[in-house]
Amino acid sequence: MNFVRKHKKISIIVLLVLVVLLSISLVFSRYILNLVNNYILETKGFYFNSTVLNVNDKGYSISNWNGVDSYTLTIDLNNRKSDARYTKADINYNIYADCPSTVTCVLSKNEGIIYENTHTDSYQLIVTPVSSFGSGEEVTIKTYVESTAPYKKKLSATYNIGVEKSKFSYEIVDAPYDKYLKLNLTNAITYYEVETAFGSYNVGDVIKIEDYANLSDTDKAKCYSAIVTLTFDPSVVFLDMTDDDYLNRLSTNYQEQTINGHNYVKKFSFKVNATSTSTVLFYKDDITANYTYPVVNDNSIIQVDVNTVS
pLDDT digit string (tens) for 70-104? Predict the structure, then answer.
């Protein structure tokens, strides 16, 4: 005790180090225990797995939300270790979600069943902002499932869903052995801005959707709500040349790449109308690949740069 009184600062530092080491030890012990329990269940022929959930939780950082519309997370579950090894019984499970007060969360269902012969099941978690989120803001969501029969097992994931570009979002929808992927773009902005002066409008003037609809095609071309530039490697994914966005592309930022004596598009820009969605189709060189973004992949195979009205 006398040493502690005389060396108070050192004692505090030692105590803090011990607390940190104890915390790390507890976390690591829990991690190992979960792996051991999972191994024991698998020796009994019980497989309750997911590509997005994990026994030790799995973290995701998503930045493609527009902060205005609902964001939908799709969670898959399966009963397989491999094609030849799967649970020889139906698996019943419950579904949960933890959300802060800044959003509302709705589950597509509260419980599910993975049938022995179908091997898979899924659910959706729909996250809706109570009020709009701005650029740089984010929300943390956790979802987890617990099997109830024939054995108990818990899987979970934590999502940090953020807004990189306010009121604009994008995603890539893909799956292994699909010949093509879909790049879905959503513009939630409700107005246009004048780029080139015309009539009574000056550069920077705001135009409402209903007024924009009454403009001539020539004058519409002088306005924008969002301008998107896509950059990609045409040796990995190549553009559907019949796509409307490509056919209506802007003359700026257009680039091609020569592969085996043929020219392929690698970069182009186009406008996305206010309060609208647009889908761009890309074919895959490797159909076994899965370019789903976000969640499956942390980075998008297609670089999406967006310029929106102020």
Answer: 999 999 999 988 888 899 999 999 999 999 999 99
Residue of 172, 112, 102, 168 lying closest to 141 (CA atoms): 102
Please identify which residue in the block is written with the tokens 């045409």.
234
Residues 166 and 63: their CA atoms lie apart, in Å, by 10
Looking at residue 250, what DSSP letter applies? Answer: -
Q: What is the pTM of this model?
A: 0.69
Strands laid side by side in the 103-107 sheet: 71-78, 120-129, 103-107
Name the architecture of domain 59-162. Sandwich (2.60)
pLDDT in tens, 232-250: 999 999 999 999 999 999 9
Q: Return the structure tokens found at 166.
A: 């306010």
> Do 171 and 70 contact (CB within 8 A), yes or no?
no
Number of H helices, E strands in the chain: 5, 19
- For the chain, the structural domain boundaries read 2-43, 59-162, 168-189+225-308
Q: What is the DSSP string of 21-59?
A: HHHHHHHHHHHHHHHHHHHHHHHTT---B-SS-BTT--E
Instruction: Specify whether the backbone of 295 is left (phi greater than 0), alpha (psi in -120 to 50) or beta.
Output: left
Q: In the prediction, which pLDDT does 136 show?
A: 86
Q: Where are the beta strands (DSSP E) in 150-290?
A: 153-162, 168-173, 180-187, 191-194, 206-208, 223-224, 226-231, 237-239, 255-259, 262-272, 276-284
**How many angstroms from the chain centroid is the CA of residue 288?**
20
State the amino acid at position 1 in one-letter form: M
CA-atom Rg of the chain in angstroms? 25
